Amino acid sequence: MPTVLIVDDAELFREALRAAFIQEGFDVVAAASDAMAAIDRAKEHKPDLVILDLLMPGMSGLEVLGTILKASPSSRVVLLTSSESTADLLQAVKSGASGYLTKDTPLPRLVAAMHDVLEGGAAVSPAMGGKLFGIVRDLLRHNGTAIKKQPELTGRELEVLARVADGLTSKEIAEELYISENTVRNHVRNILDKLGLNSRFEAVKWAYEEGLLQATR
């Protein structure tokens, strides 16, 4: 029976997922609501499979993914997230994830995907698979150089930008997301660098024009 660790800060979703996986024959050995607890549970249980949320208080799933794999090298980690950011997808692949699925994935497809991962395969939601295929296609067409049509912000960067748009200070954003002010400032700096802009106002204006902020709150 495959052992599973579920990591998600939303208690109702986490418990619903636990119940569903137990019913499908998985042994859910532990659950965690944040990154640090996830590392501890991975060290303790060495699960076959880790189902990991991306956007959590404090460290994000992407930030903790590599640490989980160091704590439990034999585990297969699948990101189960609401983020459809190409940047998040690529970072997950780079960090060693075995799958990237969106939270609207139907349970039968989710269970089948987990079995595929446990057998050495990979799992990607259809929409994200399309994005990944497009990136590979661009790489092949342009001799290893992908053409970026527009800047891609990570899920965490969009969270920060949404709160900037709400008029929150770096301190207030840090308190809401359970991260340090310095981390907030680093995210803002990364956002401006990616967009080639000079101010928070310009970044917020860009995000509204791209229709990104409505989807983040």
Global structural class: alpha/beta
Biggest sheet details: 6 strands, parallel
Mean pLDDT: 88
Number of domains: 2
In the sheet with the most strands, the strands line up as: 2-1-3-4-5-6
CATH fold topology of the largest domain: Rossmann fold
At CATH level 2, the architecture of the largest domain is 3-Layer(aba) Sandwich
The count of DSSP E runs of length 2 or more, i.e. the number of strands, is 6
Pattern of helices and strands: EHEHEHEHEHEHHHHH
* Subunit arrangement of the protein: single chain
Describe the 3D structure.
The chain is α/β, with parallel strands linked by helices. It has two domains: 3-138, Rossmann fold; 155-216, Winged helix-like DNA-binding domain superfamily/Winged helix DNA-binding domain (Arc Repressor Mutant, subunit A). It is 54% helix and 12% strand. It contains ten helices and six strands; from the N terminus they run βαβαβαβαβαβααααα. The protein has helices spanning 11-23, 35-45, 61-71, 86-95, 107-118, 126-141, 155-165, 170-177, 181-195, 200-209, and strands at 3-7, 27-32, 49-52, 76-81, 99-102, 123-124. A six-stranded parallel sheet has the order 2-1-3-4-5-6, with helices on both faces. Strand 3 (49-52), helix 3 (61-71) and strand 4 (76-81) form a beta-alpha-beta unit. The longest helix is centred in the middle third of the chain and has 16 residues, at 126-141. The model has no long low-confidence stretch (mean pLDDT 88).
